[in-house]
Amino acid sequence: MSKLLPFGLLLTLCLTPAVTGAQHRGFDLSQLDLSQLDLSQLDPAAIVASANDTVMRAPDGRIDELFQALHQASRTPRDASTLCGLFDPQADRSGQALMAAAQSLAPQSRQRFSEALINIAATGLQNPRQAYDPAVAKQTLKSAGTQAMLLHDGFAAGLNADGSDAAGRQARCRSFGWLLDALKDLPLPQRAAATRLMLNEGLSRLASN
Q1: Quick check: 116 and 62 in contact, CB under 8 A?
Q2: Nearest to 192 by CA among 125, 148, 108, 136
Q3: Are 41 and 95 a contacting pair, CB within 8 Å?
Q4: Do residues 193 and 142 lie in contact, with contact meaning Cβ atoms separated by under 8 Å?
Q5: What residues contact residue 18 under an 8 Å CB cut-off, 6+ apart?
Q6: H runs (alpha helix) in 21-106
Q7: Tens digit of pLDDT for each residue in 91-113?
Q8: Has this prediction a pTM greater than 0.85?
Q9: Phi-psi group of 161: left, alpha or beta (phi > 0 → left; psi -120 to 50 → alpha; rest → beta)
């Protein structure tokens, strides 16, 4: 499920200002111009240390709010197009490009992300680390993928499509939506584990850049 990494990166970049502003309850991601954030001024190691710890301490219910925001965004044509653009083989996945993608989401989607991320940041600062098994999280993604494959012809081919043409983009986007639909039907602990996995992978990639 390495194809999901760009989404983990996108959520990670959204999480960074939320963690920073967690103590300011008036913080609103929908009003933040993410394109103006200078990533060269951020310390990747510090981001990973604080954001990873926050993600691992936030309760499953708060993590699930973030998943639900992502799922809702994927069901809106405009936002789905933005998110799925990260699947393109030649897509620019630099920090600034990911910031621009986050900024281009519809206001309603950015508001959902804002509320979910602030709740994660606030509760993550107050709770002990939650139980988390990365192997179980990976198995959850595999199980969701299997379910999506059984329900939808062309799921696997779409998720692994490498073409940069319109047909390839549409196939990848459709398969990603199906995968999120399958994850949504799983129990809360499993959805939360899968979301933590995507976030942790995104954080790891951000640290290595």
Answers
A1: yes
A2: 136
A3: no
A4: no
A5: 27, 29, 114, 117, 118, 120, 121
A6: 44-57, 60-74, 77-84, 95-103
A7: 776 666 767 777 788 888 888 88
A8: no
A9: beta
